[in-house]
Every structure is written in C-alpha cells, then in structure tokens.
Task: structure prediction
Amino acid sequence: MASPVARRAPYKDFLQPALQRRFAGTAAILLGLAYFESLTLSRWNSLIWPWLPLGLPGLRALAIFLCVLPIIILRIAHAHMGVRTSNSLFETLTNTVLLFSTLETVLTYVISALIFSQVYLKSTPEEAGIRWISYATGRARLNEHAVFYTVNLLVLGLVQGVVHVTLDQDRLVLGTVHARPEDGGHNEGDEALLRPPEHWGTKIGQWAPILIVRCGMLAITVAMTSYIALYHFLRISAWRSSMWFFRFFYSDLPRYNLPPGGAPWSFWMLGRTIWASFLLGLLWYFADIAFRVQLAREPLKREQPLTAESKDPNGSLLNGLQSGKPRVFVSGRLGIS
Result:
C-alpha cells in the first residue's frame, strides 16, 4: 500500500505570519517613539502623571502613532523592487507626476501632518498662546499663531511627499546573499562574507544619527522658508479658510475675513515651529527606515527557512517561487535596471 503523500502547504501560510510579525515590530518601534515624543509634550508638574502610560501621555502617544500609521500603510501598498529608469527627464515627469499613487503619497503626508499639528496644538498649555481660539475682551478670536503652525506643518507634509516620490523611497533594497560557514567550500579570504547578518535593531541604531540630522535640516529649511516668504502668500487664504471652518462652532467670531494688521512673527514662534516639524519628521523618517529594515530581513525564523516547519519544506518553498502573486511587486512604471 502506498504511503500517503505529505500535504504541501502553500508558501503564503508561512510568509504572511512573518510579514505580520515584521509589521508588528515596525509598529512597536514607532509606538515607542510616539510615547517618547508624548513625554516631551507633557507638563512636568508631577513625578508620576506626566509619564504614566495609562494616563494622558498614553492617549497622546496613541494619537501621535495614528499620525504615522497612514505612512506605514502607504509603504506596504507601494513597496516594490527595481530602480526607476526612463529615456528622458520629460518621460520621468509624465510617468511619475500623472500617476494616482503620486497624488496618494502626497495627500497621505499632508493628512499625517494635519493630524499631528492638531495633536501638538492641543498638547500645548493655555499660557503658550497657540490654541485656535483666544478670548480677548470676552469674545472669541481666531489665533493666527495656530494658523501659522498648521500651515507650516501642511507645507512640511507637501515637501516630504514630493521628496518621497522624487527619491522613490518605496523601493526596497534587499541586499545580497552571503555564504554561511556550514556551507563549506570557502577560501581563507571569505571571512567578511561569512559574518552573520546584523540585527535589525543594530541597523536602525546606526541610521539614527543620520535621520536626526536629516529631520533637523528638513524642519529648519521648511520653517525658515515659511517664516520668511511662503506664509506671506498663503496668509489670507489660510486665515479665511480657518475663519470659515470655526464659524460653525463659534458664532461670535468676527465677520471680517482679513487677518490682523501684523503677522505673528517672533523667534519664540519660529523655535516652536521648528520643534514641532522636527518631531513629525522623526516619525516619518524612523517609519521609513524601520519598514525598510524589517521588510528586507532574510526570510528566516529562528535561523531556519520559513518553510522548515512544513511537512514538505522544499515543496512549500517551490510553491512560493512558482506563485504568480508576489507579495512585493517589481516596479514596472518606468522600467528596471
């Protein structure tokens, strides 16, 4: 009597849990960073409540994490391998700018910036004077400081979205395959190839100083540009849009649609704007590097192939290689090189 044939489990049964674990690892890193940023926004008038995760800091950390969650989902949806190439700059522009994915990327960053700006403004104390509505002479007044902060962060989201598309940050670099010591057949000069791969936490730690510098440069550049020139052109439209929105909630707001005579210029405001932009940039940049490092890890579990626990390991692996639905698609928008 013929022995029963072992069931060949599909490769996706092993790949999907691995991808879910890596997504959870990325989310845990960003949740920890969101909690740290939440602590920087706490009011340290007590030794316990400002850092207690079950209180307001925990809720603020969750709100900050929700700001970067759309970016992670965007990276999962647009992840691809291969370098974009084209025959000319005009072809690159037409094949990139006119894509729906480009608009989706920019809008995702703008929405992320909008959510973070409101979390930041809500976290500031009343005496800071940057809430949306102030009460001077007993009547509600729109605070232009809040308008400036929101506009600056929206511009930051727009700039980062354009940078994301321009640098093709959705591309994954999977690296190269190195021989292992137990494989045998290596020469004396192969020690560099036989070193074990670096832990993903070590890679993120190595990138941390670079990301901090990049976030600082981005925050300072955008804030200074908005402070010196850009806000001058956006001021009236931003003020009118804000007045139109808040009149639904505050009926006693003035009916005129022109901003006050003097714009809210001050070095204190500029410093706060740079700090808020820096915190948001950290979320974006660490989300990017954490996602890249996690998804580019070797397909191993406990130093063994993902299919090692299958009744037919080789059959399950071949099933994955023959699958017509790759989990990370190869970019075909502008070609591959």
